[in-house]
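During the second half of the funding period, the structural biology subgroup turned its attention to how the target accommodates small molecules. The most pressing case was zinc ion, which had performed well in the primary screen but for which no bound structure existed. We therefore specified the complex as follows and requested a full 3D prediction, including the ligand pose.
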Amino acid sequence: MLRCTILGPPVSSNEESCTPGYTRPALGVALKRGLMNRCPVCGEGRVFRGFLKLVPACSHCGTELGRLRPDDAAPYAVILITGHVLLPPVFWIERVYQPPMWLHMALWLPLFAIVCTLMLRPVKGALVGLFCRLGITGNEQAPNLYPTPPG
Ligand SMILES: [Zn+2]
């Protein structure tokens, strides 16, 4: 028996139900839906109401997405991914062509800024899906999204 009190009214069932009428999505599904700015639970409502501001709750299924707090995880993941994708070309161009430093700065800094900005929203959405799947709310005072059944 699983009880969930965060994503909607308390429910009990033998399945991994979190919002009445919906089951907890698989990890890949939750990540993909979040990446596409869709609610990780139902896949219909939106995750963001601004560029990076989360909606308080899904407009379709009522899942309280606003309780999920990816916070600094999104910029961390974006910097990690962008660094691994763009730094090899930086080093390769330096080694092969040895352009002046001002050219490196004029080329790479704006490119890094643009790529990071474009990646931030989908990565944060995917993290919302991940946190939703894992039941991480960031609030230690509230029960987990998916508390473990007693016993
Ligand atoms: Zn939803």
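Two results from this model are relevant to the next phase. Residues 39, 41-42, 44-45, 58, 60-61, 63 surround zinc ion (CB under 6 Å). Helices lie at 27-35, 73-97, 101-134.
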